[in-house]
Amino acid sequence: MSYLESNLKTIPTGLSKVLYLNWALIVLLSAVASVGFLMLYSNAGGSFQPWAEPQMKRFALGMVAMLMIAMVPIWFWRNIAGLAYIGSFMLLIFVEFFGHVGMGAQRWIDLGFMRLQPSELMKISLVMLLAAYYDWLPLEKVSRPLWVIIPVALILLPTVLVLKQPDLGTSLLLVTGGAIVMLAAGVSWWYFGAVISLFVGMVSAVFLSRGTPWQLLQDYQYRRIDTFLDPSADPLGAGYHITQAKIALGSGGWTGRGFMQGTQSRLNFLPEKHTDFIFTTLAEEFGFIGGISLLALYAGVIIFCLVSAMNNKDRFGSLVTIGIAATFFLFFAVNMSMVMGLMPVVGVPLPLVSYGGSAMLVLLAAFGIVQSAHVHRPRGKR
Amino acid sequence: MRRSPAETATSARKITRRALFLGGSQLAFMGLLGLRMRYLQVDQADKFRLLAEDNRIGDFLLAPARGLIYDRNGTLIAENEQTFRIVIRPEDAEELDTVLEKLEALIGLSPEEQERVRKQLKDAGPSAPVTIADRLSWEAFSLISANGPALPGVTPEVGLSRYYPWHNDFAHVVGYVGPVSSYDISKMETVDPLYKIPKFQLGKFGVEAQLEDTLKGGAGLRRVEQNAYGRIIRELDRQEGQPGANIQLTVDHKLQNFVQARLGGESASAVILDVETGDILAAGSTPAFDPNLFVRGISSADYRALLENDHRPLPAKSVQGAYPPGSTFKMVTALAALEADAVDPDETVRCLGHIEYGGRRFHCWKRAGHGNLNVVGSLRHSCDVFYYEMAQRAGIEKIAEMGRRLGLGQDYDLPLSGVSSGLMPDKQWKLENRGADWLVGDSLNASIGQGFVLATPMQLAVMTARIATNREIIPRLLKSVDGVEQPIRGGEPLGINENMLRSVRQGMFEVSNSNRGTAFASRIADEALRMSGKTGTSQVRSTVVDNSEVPWEQRDHALFVAFAPSDAPRYAVSVVVEHGGGGSSVAAPIARDLMLFALHGSVPPLSSYPSSQRNTIRERLESLPIIGQDPEKVGRSQA
Question: Domain extents for chain B?
């Protein structure tokens, strides 16, 4: 009887599992989602329609899904990681093909009650597969070049497809999310250093060559990069969103204008006020205090996940928890950077707050796996 | 994988270390976000509060009316028509489905259009209206206005759009406007704010493009206060736009219409000038297109059809088409030789059907030869050998100088698109452009308007007007701007010896009026209106074959230039029919009809034509699709 199996005996079974859930995490997630309900209610001019009510129903559905997933032993999720990846990949190819011949540039599959974006599923499947891979891989092989190329290929395959859609935000999340799992699994720092230096080198070569005879890109390509990096140069075009978002944010001040008192975000100056730019409503109506509070809630989610991962002796459970937390982190970090003008607008929602079913359900399902890892972690004397 | 306890412990330790690092980095980044939030919300709060107030005040540009374009008699040839459209604002689009359903019942809004509206509303900027339907009929528009309360959010709007009432006729002169594209903006040095108005129209071709700055006018401004939903509460200020200046062109819309109709389906071009003032009375180019197609943006299918037509409807052939002038160039060679004292007006040259030069044989079009001919006879018969001799005697420099004096190889600063300056080659030109010395053989080819020489129909008409008047006639298209008459340029004497000109004009007179002239069949019978002309047939390929036996695009170009009346010239005409065949059989009859229409100011009476041709002429004129004429009356007066 192996070490692991001996420890399994102490793992809770049946309904008693409910007691071993990470309840703090559930409270935090519900708090974040409630902030979203409030903002959607306010954005609709003090009405549960058209956004807040559907969002609450979906959250309830997502919570049920999360609890059900949490009840299933973590090794089941590890065993189906490969299947999940292949399934998501096939769906990505399916919409890629279907989107071109079918109805315009459709990137989702209509399930009736929601629209499922395969790229959302891929974010989680990729993390699961990488965690399973490193769970399987002998520790001494983790940093060997051949065994590094495999996960890199697993990351790049779906990234290229998503980049073609084109969805820059999701590609960024896939690459960074995948890289974080690799980092957590113990892949040597040298690889990360090399990739970062290569990237920095390429970017600086592209920019340094500008205006010289050996210029690497065409002039118009540079101009496109300029507008992308500095949209404020075109305040009525590409820079419109970001200028308006900054105004809404800035006019919030310390304590904000008060609930339902925001003018900027509700004036329709912001077209994505209920989706990607919902943070501006919070920042305008509740000010700096409101914004920081949401940030603190997010930080709490990350901390509880990481603590759970560090206390977990099951390599898969630990890595998948870190990966899912990282994906969650990337969602809100990219979204907030974008809204606050620290990053170009790439179209990433504020997790659990922005209106939209697909992202919320997938995220809650992912936290179901985190819970499963937490509940089914090996226990006992060591 | 099953691991030993030691391995599991190593793994857990490593993961813990790395997780701590990751958690630390993530928290650090969140700290950075917090700092940024503090900077925007606390440190810069005052600045952004001010900007937020500004957001409540909206400035909207008002589009001015574009200047109108009239013909020389005050008939409108480019106007602005009122257009009726309905728009919807995103914030009012809550009952979109019912509204679109009702519109489908009311004005037949197609499901594709409904889909487009839905999509645009989704992508639209804040309070930017989305057009539901454009170019509505007045009936549909009033129907919608009457049903206003049942269509929440739908706003009827009235705008102006360019309209060309004569459709194809002025396509190549007036040109067209089209919606401003980002490509147009990128070409401008300074961008007038006008061009940012949605659906604003910009001159893209012809007079509309060249006189854009005159026609466009200045933007007006409307400053409004908006409430918390972006809806306009009241107008704070309104400055009306400055309408564009109206302009008048020298063209005559009836003559232009006749020219287009007469050229018909040929790939052809014709220009009619007033020989006194240089006024362009008509500048035709066929086939043409309807400029109204371009006003709202042409569909790609329509545009492709225009591009792929081998008769090339898009360019204005009258100024953009440069052709070898063929025998119509012989007046230039004759005048150059006469002025250089290389030949006397009465001196004869013997044509044996060809000459030998440098081991090459240069043929006359008549293989049997013309016998002895002087200048007048050489023009009448269009003998090539005579001009080969003149070219050797006078040299290319003299010929080129005369060509330029008569207006070839130059453009005239006309407000038209893509004006070609043709080509009047000389020794220096060949050295610079072909890197080779000028050969006498080149002079021989040039003397009969072949080889390197190229001229546009506009230049040929100018040349003819200058021969008719011995004055430096410069073509004029713009008659007046905003009621101010534009100056007539040129008109100074050319200083060519009148005796020499007289023989050339006599030669041209005999071309049309001597029973041995090359265009005798296309003479004008009316003694007072007789015309002097010159035929030309310019080769497209080098070997001589019967035109009926080769494909269209390899046939010769047919040319004819003329002025009339011969003894008191009023108009000069040039006609080029691409791949039309012979100048005398194809181009001259067209030129006669155009000239007679110009002289009479209407469809000419049959009495102007030789009696034997009147029946065919009547049938031809009656079949033309022309305006303002009762077809019953065409040619009836004397027939």
Answer: 64-249, 253-307+314-601, 604-639
